[in-house]
Amino acid sequence: MSIDQADVTITHHAQGQGGKYVAEVAGETATGHLEWEPRQNSAGDDIRVATHTIVPREIGGRGVAGHLVKRLVADAREHGFKIVPQCSYVAKKFDENPDWADLRA
């Protein structure tokens, strides 16, 4: 059972040099999150390494992790950074969405 985007609120929180996207599902107390760390390559490009995507069992199986990745990708397009999908879930979503290839660092 997938949840509609309207039922998920995703916020971005800076943490140290990196950050975390937090997903809140309407009517639930558990939250999911996607963490990232900064990196720059030799050209000085802004890169975010997606390190972990965690969705607790209480809200799992409803597409919450996918919504988190889509928000990361939308922010990359808006703010001009590249993504290293170190997290296996994020890597899988990149493989499933070839139109994101230009964002992969």
Provide a descriptive summary of the structure in words.
This protein has two helices and five strands. It has helices spanning 64-79, 88-96; strands at 8-15, 18-25, 31-40, 46-54, 82-84. Strands 1-2-3-4-5 form a five-stranded mixed beta sheet. The longest helix is centred in the last third of the chain and has 16 residues, at 64-79. The radius of gyration is 14 Å and the shape is globular. The protein starts with 7 loop residues before the first strand and ends in a 9-residue tail after the last helix. The mean pLDDT is 93.
Topology:
Elements: E1 8-15, E2 18-25, E3 31-40, E4 46-54, H1 64-79, E5 82-84, H2 88-96
Parallel strand pairs: 4-5
Antiparallel strand pairs: 1-2, 2-3, 3-4
Q: Work out the helicity level.
A: 10-25%
Poorly predicted regions are: none
Mean model confidence by pLDDT: 93
- Could you tell me the number of beta strands? 5
Approximately how much beta-strand content do the residues carry?
35-45%
What Rg is obtained from the alpha carbons, in whole angstroms? 14 Å
Strand order of the largest sheet: 1-2-3-4-5
Order of helices and strands: EEEEHEH
Number of helices: 2
Brief descriptors of the model:
single chain; 105 residues; alpha+beta; five-stranded mixed beta sheet; globular
Give a brief rundown of this model:
The protein is of the alpha+beta class and 105 residues long.
